[in-house]
Amino acid sequence: MASAQGKTIIITGAAGGLGKAIANTFLGAGANVVVCDVNPARLASVNEEWGKTYADKFLTQQTDVTDEAAVQSLVDAAAAKFGRVDVLVNNAGVMDDFSPVGACSKEQWDRVLNVNLNGPFLTTKVAIAQFEKQEPAGGTIINIGSNASYHGFKSGAAYTVSKAGVMALTKSTAGFYGPKGVSCIALLLGGMSETNITDSFARGMHMEGFQAVQQSQSPFAPEKNVPIASVAKYCLFLTDKDIAPSANGSCIVFNKNWPEA
């Protein structure tokens, strides 16, 4: 496994599911890891678990990624504790209820776009300011996208638009900041059964929308599941100093060929 010895990584939405798997992988590779989440119970559990093994190698902070002041506080705390920030992984996300645009409430639209798109915008903005002022300057941003980033009918309207926006944000950031030493990459992930994103379904589902999406593609089966450990290893690989600049601007499909290419 690649080494991340001495690097400082910020991972959003990382007190459980995919984010926690990414955090564990970077900790195992020697990185300093900063985890934020909105769920205080999950953060407390992470503190208890990692405190026994990683001691001063990690920091947790309750953070709403849609709040610019909270994001600034997170990045400042990471830099204060570890001296710099090298990597940002924009993992925090919520799912919609599969509502098509005509049935999507303004409340749901705002909630999903706020977390999934405004969140990465704010964290990227604040992280880049930190990347530019530290010495040596530079860093890497990995955005967690989805099949819905490039397929228009893989979820409801709000989630699809949010994840398409993440892909556009990745390319825009890569284009301007690549020459300044900042690499930005997106991972467009397929079906995963070990994440917390299905927490969103507690609000209910638009069954007609869900069934229409399901009927438009091949059925999801256990063998199509993308293991979160594999995603975490790939994130680590992408932060290698030789790989990140070469992958700058890439939006990499990582979905076990489901739905079929």
TrEMBL record:
The keyword Ion transport does not apply. Pfam families: adh_short. Keywords: NADP. InterPro entries: NAD(P)-bd_dom_sf, Sc_DH/Rdtase_CS, SDR_fam. GO terms for molecular function: oxidoreductase activity, acting on the CH-OH group of donors, NAD or NADP as acceptor; quinone binding. CDD domains: SDR_c. One of its GO terms (biological process) is fatty acid biosynthetic process. PROSITE patterns: ADH_SHORT. Belongs to the short-chain dehydrogenases/reductases (SDR) family. This is Uncharacterized protein. It comes from Podospora australis. The lineage of its organism: Eukaryota, Fungi, Dikarya, Ascomycota, Pezizomycotina.
